[in-house]
Hints:
It is built from 16 helices and 12 strands. By secondary structure, the chain is mostly helical. It folds into 4 domains: 111 residues, no CATH class; 85 residues; 78 residues, no CATH class; 145 residues, no CATH class. The chain is flat, with a radius of gyration of 31 Å.
Amino acid sequence: MRWPWVKTSQAFLGMTVGCARCHDHKFDPILQRDYYAMAGFFHSTQSVYKTERGVWSDVLEVELPETEAQQAERAEQATQHAEKIAALKDEQAKATDRKSELDDLLKTDSASQDADEIASRTNLTQARDQLPGRIAQLNRAIEHAEFFAPVVPRVYGVRDVELPSDMRITVRGNPRALGEEVPRGFLQVVSHELPAVGNSESGRRQLANWIASPDNPLTARVAVNRIWQKLFGKGVVRSVDYFGLRGEKPSHPELLDYLAAIFVRGGWSQKRLIRSLVLSRTYRMSSAHNERAHAADPDNRLLWRMNRRRLGAEALRDAMLAVSRQLKPSHGGPALPLEYPENVHGIDAKNVNPPEYSLSKWRPEQAQQRTIYLPVVRSTGQPGPAELRNVFDFTQPAEFAGKRAVTAVPTQALFLINSSVVKSYAKVLAERITKDAGQDTTGLELLWLCTLNRPISAQEKQEAGDFLAKAEENGWVELCHAIVASNEFLIRL
């Protein structure tokens, strides 16, 4: 049970406790006993179960409660789904019977038939030869529909094991060399009044209460530091995942304490904290360069200007959709288009690990939805509408990254120049501009305002006008393409 606890501590407490699995932490005041005291909470928690299909395990699922309206809607969907399956089975039976009928007809000897009978036989043969393919399609459609029938919504969940217990220390991390048993508990260095853990429960509730306690000195600081990093590009503590001894010191320790205090007093409301930060003078500062300030603080640790930051992969794609007026409002829902049989394989209940997914067909509307609602493929690069993630530092979900890497490599520029998806955004943007404002200087002014959020300068207007005058029929498309691939569009200045 190493990884759940290690990631929990890193995410909420900014502490890397993994070293204490084998020995007392070399740098931070975390004992090996502390590691196994807290690992006991997860040791007493069940998250998966062994299946009857071999060595594979399935995750535990919990049914979500439904309102009466949701229950009625699901009942209606179930009725429609049953009618769909019945229609498929009826067509399947008719196709099977028709094939048998044609097989019997075509068994007769054709040697003595005249030309009309031979032509008729040829037509019957062609009709019969088409039926096996259709029957196979119907079989797959029926199998798919029965597997994905409407059910009560479920989510991944956990539960206490039947007999919760404490963990024993493993000597040097060897699970076969067990030491003394350690009662479930919390990090001693940051513990205040410890909540009691009963012998009949895992203690996950007490762990959650301890992590989110106003008296816990770490959780609020880690939380506000992550929010600060999202807004300003760098955290007050730049090592956002590690607040330990070898992590970076806060640039403004009093500010971090103040923000943590108002965050807790505000009911741990992220919206309230974000509102106070974006309305501050610090957030509204210009990113313009200042020679004197740069000489004194080249890394901008004292926040004499706003940091210039490139848009993330998701925000960049969404921005291209937004300026071309293609972005569709969406409220979530299942990202994987499982309704298409082409995307699902191995759904026989007897298979080792059903179902298997292969994203080969997208919903038409997904090309215009926000990137956050698109599925994430773990086994390969992100396909289709999400391919921009592959070159703009998208972190794979199996990795833990409080701060994404920000790179500047040639493949990014080449993608923006050559991608057919980016070119399609530019084409739709050009159509929008020329439709709303025409192909004169008014169109140029609108283009600059809707993409760069500023008026076009006289020099830019002259240069853009000269380009359009010399360009061929796709001049506006090429200009829009250049704008959405420019640094000013990519970077928050």
